[in-house]
Amino acid sequence: MTKPENETATLEVAPLPRHAVPFGDLLASINLPETTYNKEAKKHGGCRTFKIGRRKYALLADWHKWLERRADLAGAA
Fold it and tell me: What is the pTM of this model?
């Protein structure tokens, strides 16, 4: 069995990491109290979050989608 001279190797590239930020930091960045967020989230749906230990985190992509949705709701009102 002979090996071809121009054999190419295939590489699998892992997807980019999804960056997560502590949820309190995200709320602080837009000066939104957590109680206000909780009221809005209950009424219109909030950003998807997850917990690691006691801290709540959100993925930046999900956060940006939620901010866009929030802006659309404010514009429609």
Answer: 0.66
